[in-house]
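Most newcomers find our protein records easier to grasp once they have seen one. Nothing more is needed to start thinking about how sequence determines fold. Here is such a record, shown just as it appears in the course material:
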Amino acid sequence: MEKQERRQKLLENLIYLIIWVVILVSPLLEHKYNGETINWNDIFRAWKMIAPFFILFLINNYVLIPFLLIRKKSWLYLLFSLLTVCLIFALNPFVKLKRPGGMEKHPPREFMMNRPPKEERTAQASYAPTDVADAGDDLSYGKLHPDSYPGTRSECCH
């Protein structure tokens, strides 16, 4: 029975190895498939992004499961799993609470509508329709006062 368990454990680890090799080689294959030259900075960046998941896998598979889950300590397993995930991602420099590239201030240009520059909008701010029916006549940006849209401050507070 022990020989069969060892063989099963070996097969399981071989499957894990194959899966992780495919995951780690995929950035290289992507560059080759796209016909690009290999940019090692991109490859290392991809590997750095994969590394926390690999570490989580190792800790879970070789520490937490054998010492806690198999020994029927489910609550401790859950607690340590959550702590491990939080710790790994808290220490990961690729996990940021704000959007990359300063997008927390403005949406990307592709999402911006064709609007006149801010100076033109403020110069045209003197035109403010008196009711919502007037606002429906001209819905293009820059021709309506910003507070004249339905549900905005000027409509609800006057």
Remarks:
- Residues 103 and 109 are 10 Å apart (CA to CA).
- The helical segments are 2-33, 40-69, 74-91, 118-123, 132-137, 153-157.
